[in-house]
Design a protein that fits this description.
Radius of gyration of chain A: 23 Å
Strand order of the largest sheet of chain A: 1-3-2
Strand content of chain A: under 5%
Low-confidence stretches of chain A: 130-144
Shape of chain A: flat
CATH topology of the largest domain in chain A: Globin-like
Order of helices and strands of chain A: EHHEEHHHHHHHHHHH
Number of helices of chain A: 13
Oligomer: homodimer
CATH architecture of the largest domain in chain A: Orthogonal Bundle
DNA sequence: GTAGAAGTTGACGCCGCGTCAACGTCAAGC
DNA sequence: GCTTGACGTTGACGCGGCGTCAACTTCTAC
């Protein structure tokens, strides 16, 4: 695959100026540059561009976008991708809500009926529909987790991954025994899991069960756990369900 | 209803800075200003603000927004509102498409399958999902109609308004006689009305009856017509109903 | 050999506010 | 009445994400 700048522009709908800009700020460099200075893009760049454009649609600042798409850890990348997918659905729902609000307003106006001012602005407030946008995209979620990851160093990273393997392995053994998700052993492992995931991000009472469900629903996550034994992901999910009740937020 | 700037900010989710900015550029002035310089907003301002925010969500430049919400012709306003509602739904669908594209990409990646580059960017190109965005918000729909209005000149504007008065007056007389909406006289007047409204926007088979219904349902519109005589708005609506069957679209 | 299309690198500009500074005004508590 | 703190006011500057020239190079076609 070899596309020049105008081909990429046509394909993706961005302008060539934008692509040059992304190159200038180091966000998306071409795969290679011809001896005449012309930019050429390959598959990897297209994938990266897609990710960039998704984040742009979500109004994430380009600097933050850079830190997100630069994550070299595939596990983190996958987790983020899924998160972004959910964010897109949230935007979809927000526009649906906005449309409804407008329709309500118009029909009420037509009938000369008054309207609660609250109802008139349902769906407008970003902070209500996209909770903790700043925390999600800003320092905490991404730069924070990357920083934490690097801070571990090669040795710490190995240890961190090993801890995860240990947790998953132990859970798989308990799953084989049909253990009780609310039992002491499972809960202890869930606690370790919560600590493990907290390196990147500390999920609260609402978010942690969501993560648990994702472990089951998403095939990629599921595979990560179930390779240790069938039912591991589900046991983790159910254990999290119980464990999360004791969390703040 | 009397809200100060912070109350409006809380209610709508915009910042007080934004409200001051809108005041500064003449986009949204407060209903009145206290002797201490504090801004106070009323119902009309909230309605205008909602319209502004909708357009902002649709990424319409504020200058264009100003020209839209400043249209003093209620018929045009109503038509635009409906159009904006549809635009919101279009955005909703676009985000749905984006989410789907991302999901497809992720799952294909997981399975190691290749992907057509076209599919990878489905939904991204604004120009594809928001057809004639520029024409819609830019020159044609709004500036266009405003331009048409200005193009008339003071003399032409007077004539245009006079024509409307003439139509409404004639309709009122027919309404007093309990005329048949599908009758020749009414239909001739409706034809003139259609031509009249077409200066701003040419409603088709579906839109024109909608406009007709609004003349009856919306008290502002209704008053405009019924001041010539009771039943005028309804006669116009019914006449439009018939007339519209012969329209294209 | 030359014209035209499309690329390149600066450089400046613009919109929609965020943000900071300096100051005025109000209600509550002493 | 005086202070204090919350919240308002008016400038002014800054910035992100490109659009938009300008000046130039390079490739392709005839």
């Amino acid at each position: 695959m070899d596309l020049d700048i105008s081909a990429v522009a046509r394909l993706t709908g961005v302008t060539s100026r934008t692509l040059r800009h992304y190159d200038a700020i180091g966000l998306l460099s071409p795969a290679w540059t011809g001896h005449d200075g012309r930019r050429h893009y390959g598959d990897a760049e297209l994938l990266r561009l897609q990710h960039i454009l998704v984040l742009r649609e979500l109004e994430v600042p380009l600097e933050t976008v850079a830190s997100i798409v630069d994550t070299d850890d595939p596990a983190l990348t996958a987790a983020l991708m899924r998160d972004h997918h959910i964010a897109l659905l949230t935007r979809r729902d927000r526009f649906a809500a906005l449309a409804e609000t407008v329709e309500r307003t118009v029909t009420r106006l037509e009938k000369g009926l008054p309207m609660s001012t609250d109802d008139m602005f349902e769906g407008f407030d970003h902070s209500r529909y996209e909770p903790e946008a700043r925390e999600r995209w800003g320092d905490l979620a991404v730069e924070g987790s990357n920083a934490a990851w690097k801070w571990l160093g090669a040795e710490g990273q190995r240890a961190h991954l090993a801890e995860h393997e240990a947790i998953a392995g132990a859970l798989a053994r308990l799953a084989a025994e049909d253990a009780d998700p609310s039992g002491e052993e499972v809960q202890a492992l869930v606690a370790r899991h919560h600590a493990w995931v907290s390196l990147f991000w500390t999920p609260g009472r609402d978010a942690y069960p969501g993560l648990g469900r994702m472990y089951v629903d998403d095939p990629r996550f599921r595979a990560t756990y179930d390779k240790h034994g069938d039912g591991t992901a589900e046991l983790l999910r159910d254990g999290i369900e119980v464990f999360a009740r004791g969390l703040p937020d």
